Amino acid sequence: MQVSSEYVLAWSVYVIAGGGCCLVWWKLTSLIRNRGWREILRGLCFVLIFTPWYAGDTAEFYAPAVVVLLMDVLLEGTASGLKGGVALLVSTFLMLLVLVARELLRRRPE
């Protein structure tokens, strides 16, 4: 698989822009007093922005799973839209597991 420089440049710009969006969202959610809701919203932002999934039928090129999900639903219908949706669902589940583990370790008596 030959990766073009445009592909790498596009992902670099996307990661930098996604980091900026996450930073803004981090500042906005700092106004939420409940730590649980604040961490869930921050985690959802991270999952939605940074979950990759393969674009098309081959696993050569990746795209954000949200974009893959939206394009599949818009162009091919709901049955095809499950590919990106499953990736987002698994990523969200893993994020929630990490948050629950952090909370259990934090409340653990010494």
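(ticket continues) Second input and output from the same batch:
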Amino acid sequence: MTKRNLNISRRILLGRGLSAALLSASGVASARTVSGNKMVVIILRGAMDGLGAVPVIGREAGAEPLARFRPDLIAPGAAPLSEGFALHPSLKNVARLVRKGQGRVMHAAAGPYRERSHFLAQDLLESGTDKFMSRDGWLNRALQYGPSALQAVAVGSSTPHIVKGPASVASWSPPVLPEASDDTVARLLELYGSDPLLETALSQSIQLSGTAMMGGGSKAARGDFSAITEAAARLLLPAGGPDIAVLSLSGWDTHASQPNLLGRQLTKLDEALLTLEKTLGAHWQNTLVTVVTEFGRTVRQNGTKGTDHGTGSAAFALGGAVQGRGLIGDWPGVSERQLFENRDLYPANDIRSLFMAALSQQFGYSRADLSNSVFPQSAGLPIMRL
């Protein structure tokens, strides 16, 4: 063990927590050549109501039947988007980004799954295939077939399936144990000093944790989503750090009292996105954020002023790297005859198209690698310009 490693580690860890864990010691590289572009994938777990987040208000989008289907769920004060659509009033920052040309919406989006199990839908969303229980996630495959220096980090209390696989991926979770003392860290580094691989892994883990914790880890440990996105942004900032971050926000299963619950959730998301933008600073201009969920909810409200598991939902593409305006993809409408199985928003757009567009635009992935290796069974899906 070198004196230099010990000093750096003690300085980084001071006042922090030894909370980072690495799926692979090589998950964070020190000298790499990549484009400088960044990507953030946010998964909203629990099936966000896309028609609640992005309601239709104009005749061209079929507003009249929507109001008839869900008279108690239309939030007043929605911000007009375009083409007869609007944004929930809680999405103030998202609305600002849309006005700046830094935000687009893919409506009526879903993966290839057509049933309504959270677990199975999330499995396919993260695997990027139409086969259940795959051994790796699409982002891990993307690391295998993309630029050799490309790196990713998973931020949160658990490691999502999207990053699992043979490619090395870093992970960071907020601390839940008491902070490690300087003496403990020094002893660990001394213990691992005889094994270069273990020493490197521990040193990188400490550095990862110290970088993420600069914004304070206590709020992140309590599940504060803004604190988690701040940690993700700080991990993306350093030269040689990860290029892609993945994180999740749970709590979108709005079976009852949806107006209050959805408003609170969208406020959390909106504030977290603003924190991400502010923390990234100038890097926001070359960042693309995709916000997705496993499926949507029923067009009709239920008896408890909520919605049940559905199919088509809404997804977002946000950030300075967004180059287009307006909605992405096709819109199927919400009249009685246009519903999927007489209950759901028809899934007119495959969510994999959004992921393919993001990888192509940010990191130069070819159509062949995307459709053959990263997203098998996706041949024929459009790769849109975001």
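Agent notes: DSSP finds 13 helices and twelve strands in the chain. Residues 1-30+181-216 form one domain. Closing as not reproducible unless the customer responds.
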